[in-house]
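re: the backbone from monday

yeah here it is again, tokenized this time
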């Protein structure tokens, strides 16, 4: 099975992210996020394959890991995009949140079975996807629409890690861990 590790965006910010996905998708024929639903999140460890035994090991690791840290600050601050292909909510991690993410990835390297993606160690591109583009034309429509909206600003707490599991359609929360 395929899994990923993420921070779950909850509350008003999570609802706002999901509303934008539902608004933008049909309006601009950007259906990927509608057809492959996932919880509002920021990816911290990109997808990897694991057996049930390995996921059990990862669950124990994350449970211990989260107990060692205190929640820190995260801020959603406007919109951004990658290469006229992906539009997203811009997420800014505090220094403490970035340090937790760095430590997470450092310690995950001790799991011999864990695979790595070149995107795993990017600590300056935090985002919550709104649309995953099909064409430049549809992206331009999405981007122009987002630019006309009031700039979203949400103050959040980096207080969770979650294992996401790929399902037949989209991703679901497999298990959540609280940073206390």
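seq for it, each position gets an aa:
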């Amino acid at each position: 099975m395929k899994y990923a590790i993420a921070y779950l965006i909850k509350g008003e910010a999570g609802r706002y992210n999901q509303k934008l996905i539902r608004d933008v998708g049909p309006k601009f024929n950007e259906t990927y996020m509608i057809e492959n639903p996932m919880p509002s999140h920021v990816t911290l460890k990109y997808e990897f394959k694991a057996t049930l035994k390995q996921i059990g090991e990862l669950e124990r690791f994350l449970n211990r890991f989260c107990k060692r840290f205190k929640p820190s600050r995260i801020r959603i601050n406007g919109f951004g995009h990658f290469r006229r292909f992906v539009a997203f909510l811009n997420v800014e991690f505090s220094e403490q949140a970035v340090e937790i993410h760095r430590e997470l990835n450092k310690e995950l390297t001790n799991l011999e079975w864990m695979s790595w993606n070149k995107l795993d160690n990017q600590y300056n591109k935090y985002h919550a996807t709104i649309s995953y583009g099909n064409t430049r034309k549809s992206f331009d429509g999405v981007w122009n629409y987002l630019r006309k909206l009031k700039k979203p600003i949400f103050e959040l707490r980096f207080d969770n890690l979650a294992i996401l599991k790929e399902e037949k359609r989209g991703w679901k929360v497999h298990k959540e861990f609280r940073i206390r």
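Residues 2-178 form a domain with the Cyclic Phosphodiesterase; Chain: A, fold (CATH 3.90.1140.10). The mean pLDDT is 94.
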